[in-house]
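User: Please predict the structure of the protein below. I'd like the answer in structure-token form so I can feed it into my own downstream comparison script.

Assistant: Understood. Taking the following sequence of 303 residues as input:
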Amino acid sequence: MGHYHIKDFEAISGIKAHTIRIWEQRYGLLKPTRSETNIRQYGDDELTLLLNISMLNRNGFKISRVAKMSRAEIEQKVRSITTTNLEHANQVDALTITMLELDENEFDRVLNVNIAQLGFEEAMELVVFPFLRNLGILWQTGTINPAQEHFISNLIRQKLIVAIDRMNVAKNEAISKSLLFLPEGEMHELGLLYLNYLLHKNHHQVMYLGQNVPLRDVEKVVDIFKPDQVFSIFTSVPAASQIAGYIADLSKIMSEGQIYLSGYAFQLYAAKVPQNVVLIKEMADIRTVINSKLGLILNTSEK
């Protein structure tokens, strides 16, 4: 069970701490416990309820009305909203709730509705990746159970692998060769798998090395595979103080090709990079960058 402070709730739900306190005091919607130092503490049930209440309020339900609903009625209304109203914030909250409740069937339902309505790429970029940012907040605050993270990450991973497997690219049809890897110690693979999907879809021959790859191994593969470009994503490694040196070494290894780097580590990164390195600040920009830099036609309207 998670243990959250009111500031965690504010960060995850987008609802101001002051508003949460009012809802508690006026309507009794949440029932926090108190720590030994008299600080409010909440559990997974309260977070799930808050996300449900927030979704209803965002979709026109007055808090005074929600306060009179049973838990089952709240959940039924939320389910109806996530089926008929594809506002991204609703869907992100819905995925967060499925993770907290370890509800695989509901996760599949929510994600499949989004894929059917938005298409696979839009569903990933507008719903799944924002959800993963919320997951990062939960992880950083130490309030999420690792089993919950593994549960939801593996479900998303399965969706990506199935999508990739549907796209077999013959070597003689490939327009370019791409090498994908995560740095040594980096285990957050979902963004790289999505890149793998996009490149396969657009007729690249992809060498996918996956997680936790030492740079010396990358160098050996570059010598043999001779890729036109390399893609990598930095989330937790290398350390901030080591990024510039790592990029310089990778640039030398790929001196004859282009390097594309993305990930959380580059959100505030302002140092200059070598000429053959392109930084992609947001995962949602990846399709645009691939399109403009590699001259690919990305079908954004495919459902």
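That's the full token string. The chain has two domains: 6-163, 169-294.
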